[in-house]
């Protein structure tokens, strides 16, 4: 009887959100590695998360270059480590308390601001953007559809066989979304909070600097999103992801004729607070 040799699990087959090879039917559905590590704090690489945050402002391309090395060693683009999510959530918690103490009327509204900042602005929005990107980017910018150069169809579980080696992972889409949110937090949740007593005034200079914060924040979000998907070698025409910059610049230029973004779009306003103290 000849022995049957199987390849090690970590080297077999494609990966999805979990960063794990799909198991056989007899093994059933296994919990994704991301959720298994959700509460294993000693195994989280917070040092890497801090390095990524510091690099996202000055050299965001390095962050996604490191993910390419992760693909070479772990056979998955997605990094199943929630340390970045936890760390940015903690920073949002701190800034929400600052916004609440400054502009909320009472403890209950401060708690509401905290919940909205962390679970709606950050987590829910990132999940929504990553879900949309998983289907739209994989479907429109992939490869392999006859008659549509540079595009391929993308389903929830990806194509079978060898084509799955070029599958867009949902976990990677989420990684890109939460990293793109970091500059938004820096400019709109931290810097805007510190400058609010100045940029909320009825002066054109205040309007210019305040509105420019939004242009920079969402411009960073767009560029980092582009760099994230541009790092994937099986996607094509990713420069199309930079097209929102045209709308952002047009909206910023139009707003300079009298629409003060900090007074109407400050994050705390979406949580039911008021900016009367700033104005």
UniProtKB/TrEMBL annotation:
It comes from the Eukaryota. The chain crosses the membrane at residues 84-103, 115-137, 180-200, 207-229, 241-259. Keywords: Membrane, Transmembrane, Transmembrane helix. It is found in: Membrane. Belongs to the unc-50 family. It is a multi-pass membrane protein. It comes from Cryomyces minteri. One of its GO terms (cellular component) is Golgi membrane. Residues 1-26 are annotated as: Disordered. This is UNC-50 family protein.
């Amino acid at each position: 009887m000849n022995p049957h040799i199987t390849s090690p699990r970590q080297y077999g087959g494609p990966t999805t959100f979990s960063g794990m090879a799909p198991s056989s039917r007899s093994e059933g559905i296994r919990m994704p590695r991301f959720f298994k590590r959700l509460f294993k704090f000693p195994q989280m690489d917070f040092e890497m998360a801090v390095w990524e945050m510091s690099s996202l402002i000055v050299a965001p391309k390095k962050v996604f270059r490191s993910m390419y090395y992760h693909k070479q060693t772990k056979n998955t683009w997605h990094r199943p480590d929630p340390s970045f999510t936890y760390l940015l959530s903690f920073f949002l918690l701190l800034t929400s308390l600052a916004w609440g103490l400054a502009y909320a009327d009472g403890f209950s509204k401060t708690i509401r601001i905290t919940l909205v900042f962390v679970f709606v602005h950050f987590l829910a929005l990132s999940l929504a953007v990553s879900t949309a990107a998983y289907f739209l980017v994989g479907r429109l910018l992939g490869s392999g559809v006859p008659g549509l150069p540079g595009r391929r169809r993308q389903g929830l579980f990806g194509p079978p066989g060898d084509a799955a080696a070029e599958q867009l992972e949902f976990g990677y889409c989420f990684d890109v979304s939460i990293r793109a949110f970091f500059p938004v937090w820096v400019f709109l949740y931290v810097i805007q909070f510190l400058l609010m007593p100045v940029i909320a005034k009825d002066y054109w200079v205040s309007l210019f600097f305040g509105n420019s914060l939004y242009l920079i924040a969402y411009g960073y979000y767009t560029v980092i999103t582009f760099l994230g998907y541009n790092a994937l070698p099986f996607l094509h025409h990713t420069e199309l992801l930079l097209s929102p910059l045209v709308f952002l610049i047009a909206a910023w230029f139009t707003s300079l004729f009298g629409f003060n973004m900090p007074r109407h779009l400050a994050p705390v306003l979406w949580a039911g607070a008021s900016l009367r103290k700033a104005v």
